[in-house]
Design brief:
Blueprint: E1 10-19, E2 22-32, E3 37-41, H1 48-56, E4 63-68, E5 71-72, E6 83-86, H2 98-102, H3 104-108, H4 113-126, H5 142-155, E7 160-164, H6 172-189, E8 192-197, H7 200-206, E9 209-214, E10 217-222, H8 224-229, H9 234-239, E11 244-254, E12 257-262, E13 265-270, H10 275-279, E14 285-290, E15 296-297, E16 306-317, E17 320-326, E18 335-341, E19 354-358, E20 364-368
Parallel strand pairs: 3-8, 3-9, 6-7, 7-8
Antiparallel strand pairs: 1-2, 1-4, 4-5, 9-10, 11-12, 11-14, 12-13, 14-20, 15-19, 16-17, 16-19, 17-18
């Protein structure tokens, strides 16, 4: 996404952060484009929040180089960086009104009161809280407090906004509303947003690009579509969504397809645009990966990727129903997930029933073990 003439909003080169013998961040290289909504996604302890703290200036790297908009920031204190942070716990002053909280940063900078009042009013209108200026944080809902924290971050006009799991404390419906709100705000003001989360749906729904982190390393970086449909390793395939993974060994290549021999028989999956999978040796250990929504009841004409299994469980999930299918016998038999639209009169499938299943080759992908 970067233009060659434009410096990255954030650039990491060989960045490490050690805590004793633990490498919380281990040799990370990363470029975030100006105006991008970028998400760092990973489980607890993956290093994503440590990266955010290094950018904010709350911590310093043990090794490597960090630039923000082309300027080296090693040793530059947090208050001198063109960055503001929105925290999960809001960090609002309980004794200040909404307008007092939002304008606090400008007051510290000794901005004239008239200008503060004008900019506070603009910021509150932007986050749709113009009528709440004289309320105190305790009089607001969780979503409203989060919008106050966002307005406070925006008012000093930083070039980069860091969001550290800001929606984690909100209930599901409010979280979805805030996801839409954050994305709309980011599109309107065109400021670079770096969003740290462990929630895949948040990252998919808001980010232009996502980097998936594990144990201090970036495992994959790409668009939500790329990560969802083309995970490049077992960790991303398991962590990002609900892939069905079936172990096997690689077989022959035919154009943009490659076979894999598994306990379900020989499966054929797409390797389009993935040269490393085309070049991998026959017999190499790998996984066939396919989404629950790609799996379907096999018709009489479905010849590829066809196998049978027993329905072990059915779970109603609103608009869809999820069936757990045991494909084979014994404790090591693959347990697969089949997702299909729910019906008003209930599912025609029953627990204990044996069904024939298949998926289209272009909806299956391979990841090396």
């Amino acid at each position: 996404m970067l233009q060659s003439s434009s410096p990255a909003a954030v650039s990491f080169r060989g960045v490490e952060r050690h805590f004793g013998s633990v490498k919380a961040v281990d040799g990370v290289d990363l470029d975030i484009a100006p105006g991008e909504f970028f998400a760092m996604l990973g489980p607890s302890g993956s290093g994503k929040t440590t990266c955010l703290r290094l950018i904010a200036g709350f911590d310093q790297p043990s090794a490597g180089h960090i630039e923000i908009f082309g300027e080296a920031v090693e040793g530059v204190p947090a208050y001198r960086r063109p960055v503001n942070t929105v925290f999960q716990d809001y960090a609002l002053f309980p004794h200040l009104t909404v307008s007092g909280n939002v304008g606090y940063g400008l007051s510290v900078r000794r901005v004239p009161r008239k200008e503060i009042a004008s900019r506070v009013a603009q910021a509150l209108e932007l986050v749709q809280l113009g009528l709440f200026a004289e309320r105190f944080p305790a009089q607001l809902s969780g979503g409203q407090r989060q919008r106050v924290a966002l307005a406070r971050a925006l008012i000093c006009q930083p070039r980069l906004i860091l969001l550290d799991e800001p929606l984690a404390a909100l209930d599901l419906e409010l979280r979805r509303q805030m996801q839409e709100f954050l994305k709309s705000i980011q599109r309107e003001i065109k400021t670079t947003f770096l969003f740290v989360t462990h929630d895949q749906e948040e990252a998919i729904g808001m980010a232009d690009r996502i980097c998936v982190m594990q144990a201090g390393h970036i495992r994959q970086l790409g668009t939500p579509h790329e990560l969802y449909y083309k995970p490049n390793c077992e960790f991303v395939a398991r962590f990002f969504g609900e892939n069905n993974l079936v172990a096997g060994t690689l077989g022959p290549v035919q154009d943009d397809l490659r076979s894999i021999d598994t306990v379900l028989g020989r499966l054929v999956c797409s390797i389009a645009g993935q040269q490393h999978l085309k070049a991998a040796a026959n017999g190499a250990r790998a996984f066939a990966a396919f989404r629950p929504e790609a799996l379907r009841l096999a018709g009489t004409h479905d010849a590829s990727n066809r196998f049978s299994g027993r329905i072990a469980d059915l779970a109603f999930a609103g608009s869809s129903t999820i069936a757990t299918v045991v494909a084979g016998e014994g404790a090591t038999a693959p347990r697969l997930r089949l997702r299909f639209p729910s019906q008003v009169d209930g599912s025609a499938l029953k627990s204990g029933e044996t069904v024939a299943l298949s998926f289209a080759p272009h909806e299956g992908h391979l990841v090396l073990a």
